[in-house]
Design goal:
alpha+beta; 6-stranded mixed β-sheet; globular; 4-stranded mixed β-sheet; Alpha-Beta Plaits; about 25% strand; single chain; 19 strands; 2 domains; Aminopeptidase
Length: about 450
């Protein structure tokens, strides 16, 4: 690799981030992101960057690095990557999930795609710019943030609420996007300009305890809960076609009849039955409020009729939908059981950024140079990222990166929170070059 090639540096930093094993299981004591803040602070030190560490709870640290702009009227760009990762079951992996092994041009490990690859490449790009004496008109900020995998309480949410001056920016880029979708007329690169909201709900079903040896006529909370789960699973809310989905479908080169059905609320569901499963799931999730029962807790002993069962339901709302709408849908799904089920919900609404922005134009220019014949296409993310906190605070925020043709669409999304997470080194190089070039193009 040549002297100007960042690949080796990104590989090494990514491997170290993976080995730090900052596993976030949702408890306050988990994460340990301070380990990676120490690593990144050491990596960025000595380049003339302003470095600030924020740690609202012991071990739950985030790092901010800044190259201050010389024109206070120029925009600010924030590159944001999280350092925590989700738990892992090693039995499902072909390699050590925290080994950070490099094998045949691929780095393996938990977080390799979600999202330590981008966290590492952003850090390397910012360090390289600082070493080159980059003095932009607008400020460039790098944020290695904690707690993204558990609602952002000790990371982005805390920083936006309590350290706003340190992290706020006109433009924000975080995960994920940037996969190459080859079409007859060129390559399309999805940019996540919006993400669905969460209306996570806890449903409590009550009954009457009794002896398990005499079940006849009992008010068994588990039986009622099973009916609640069945109704939620079978509930079919109305299809909603939004502009981001329409633009995505029009841009990805589907056969004309398929594309027409996927933007027609009357025909979309029938078309989904005929599509490959990955595309069908995307089409359904991008056009519907979804209800997924995911956790059930109940019962105390085999011979005791349960009098209480707790269900957790992952509800995802579309841009523009309110929590009241989601609650009304829950009640509609439950029907005559709605009045007898206790429901407690956490409303975190969907967010969306416009496409017609200087950041979009900059990403398009740079990506077109790095991936010849490519064009950007807006996309709705069905999960959630820390971008939502910045959108609500007034920033334009996109999910993007840049991946090689080796990274397939299905492989990529199956690795999020899945087994055998890995990223190829060409993708690491492309992302690093992307961040460098976008900072120079947008901030000048």
């Amino acid at each position: 690799m040549g002297r100007d090639d960042p690949t080796a540096e990104v590989i090494d930093l990514l491997q170290q981030l993976i080995r730090n094993a900052c596993v976030n299981d949702g408890t306050v004591a988990s994460g340990g992101e301070a380990r990676s803040v120490e690593l990144l602070s050491g990596f960025l030190a000595g380049a003339g960057l302003d470095l600030e560490r924020y740690e609202p709870r012991p071990g739950r640290a985030s790092l901010v690095a800044r190259i201050e702009g010389h024109d206070p009227t120029a925009p600010t760009l924030l590159l944001m990557g999280h350092t925590d990762v989700v738990p892992v079951n090693p039995e499902g992996w072909s390699r050590d999930p925290f080994g950070g092994e490099l094998v045949d041009g691929v780095v393996w490990g938990r977080g390799a795609v979600d999202m330590l690859n981008l966290t590492a490449s952003m850090a390397v790009a910012v360090r390289r710019l600082a070493d080159q004496g980059f003095r932009p008109r607008g400020s460039l900020v790098y944020l290695a943030v904690a707690d993204e995998e558990a609602l952002g309480t000790w990371g982005a949410e805390h920083l936006v609420e309590h350290q706003r001056d340190a992290v706020m920016a006109d433009y924000v880029v975080t995960e994920s996007g940037g996969l190459q979708v080859p079409l007859g007329e060129g390559i399309r690169l999805p940019v996540l300009v919006a993400e669905k909201g969460t209306y996570w709900s806890k449903l409590v079903v009550r009954g009457t305890p009794g002896h398990g040896s005499q079940p006849f006529g009992t008010d068994n909370a588990l039986v009622t809960a099973a009916e609640v789960v069945r109704r939620l699973h079978e509930y079919r809310p109305a299809t909603r076609i939004q502009e981001t989905w329409r633009r995505f479908v029009e841009a990805i080169g589907l056969p004309r009849d398929v594309a027409a059905d996927l933007v027609d609320p009357e025909r979309l569901m029938a078309r989904c039955e005929e599509l490959p499963l990955s595309l069908a799931r995307m089409a359904h999730s991008c056009t519907h409020t979804t209800f997924a029962p995911t956790v059930a807790r109940g019962g105390t002993k085999t011979n005791v009729i349960p009098d209480r069962v707790e269900l957790e339901v992952d509800v995802r709302t579309l841009p523009g939908q309110s929590g009241d709408e989601a609650r009304a849908m829950l009640d509609e799904a439950l029907g005559d059981l709605a009045g007898s089920v206790e429901i407690e919900s956490r409303d975190d609404p969907a967010t969306e950024s416009p496409v017609e922005t200087p950041l979009w134009d900059s990403l398009a220019r740079v990506s077109g140079r790095l991936v010849e014949g490519s064009a950007l296409v807006p996309m709705l993310m069905t999960g959630g990222t820390d971008a939502r906190f910045f959108r609500r605070a007034g920033s334009v925020a996109y999910g993007y990166g840049l991946f090689s043709a080796r990274m397939g669409f299905e492989d990529y999304y199956s690795m999020f929170h899945g087994n055998d997470e890995r990223v190829d080194v060409e993708s690491l190089r492309l992302s690093t070059e992307l961040w460098e070039a976008v900072a120079q193009d947008l901030l000048g």
